[in-house]
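Please fill in the sequence for the structure shown.

STRUCTURE ENCODING:
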């Protein structure tokens, strides 16, 4: 019996390697934040595909780990004090992994908080707005005759891209060096352009700094690996 056996989620997704961090996710803009992070920091982990298209996050096992029913979530057998730690919310997981390993988050307090503000910028603005734009542009929302919701999210997504464009002017990364701020944002900007197909809608082709930053990020081997973990079965 491992320490993880006490967690109901392991009954639905058994841990073959209970000594490793367990990742429960799906390759969405939110999900790939954590898989990219784990690939970047080189921490051994075991990924489990939680198929959101089949509503697997709403089963009792997953809800026991994240009552909000959203991916990603982790179960770390070697948490604080050597005790297992269950954690959900991608932003919280990024901060936890950065602090656990001492990677991708500046140690200097001022620069640390500056990095975190851009992580929260993604969590509170970019993710929700880009996601809503995707719904009204590509998915069921496109059938709604009233186009005011689409225009609202289009305009706000374009504005947010402008904020990123200003931040990245003359920079390779959101901070002076690659950090969890970039990890948090890369999947969402890629998703907006490639998955949602909304690049023309938000004037993406008129930008310079953001597309160059995205290309740099997508060229990183860890990012390439993380974008397809766990694989879509």
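FILLED IN BY: designer on duty
SEQUENCE:
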């Amino acid at each position: 019996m491992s320490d993880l056996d006490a967690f109901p989620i392991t009954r639905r997704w058994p841990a073959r390697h209970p000594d490793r961090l367990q990742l429960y996710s799906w390759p969405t803009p939110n999900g790939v934040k954590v898989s990219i992070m784990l690939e970047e920091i080189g921490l051994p982990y075991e990924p489990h595909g939680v198929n959101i298209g089949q509503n697997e996050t709403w089963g009792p096992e997953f809800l026991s780990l994240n009552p909000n029913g959203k991916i990603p979530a982790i179960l770390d057998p070697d948490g604080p004090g050597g005790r297992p730690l269950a954690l959900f919310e991608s932003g919280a997981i990024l901060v936890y992994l950065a602090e656990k390993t001492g990677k991708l988050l500046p140690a200097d307090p001022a620069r640390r908080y500056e990095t975190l503000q851009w992580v929260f910028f993604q969590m509170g603005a970019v993710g929700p707005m880009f996601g809503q734009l995707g719904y009204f542009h590509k998915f069921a929302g496109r059938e709604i005759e009233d186009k005011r919701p689409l225009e609202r999210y289009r305009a706000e997504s374009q504005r947010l891209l402008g904020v990123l464009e200003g931040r990245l002017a003359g920079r390779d990364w959101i901070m002076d060096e690659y950090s969890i701020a970039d990890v948090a944002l890369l999947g969402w900007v890629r998703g907006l352009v490639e998955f949602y197909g909304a690049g023309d809608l938000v004037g993406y082709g008129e930008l310079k700094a953001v597309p160059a930053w995205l290309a740099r990020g997508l060229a990183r081997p860890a990012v390439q690996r993380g974008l397809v973990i766990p694989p879509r079965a």
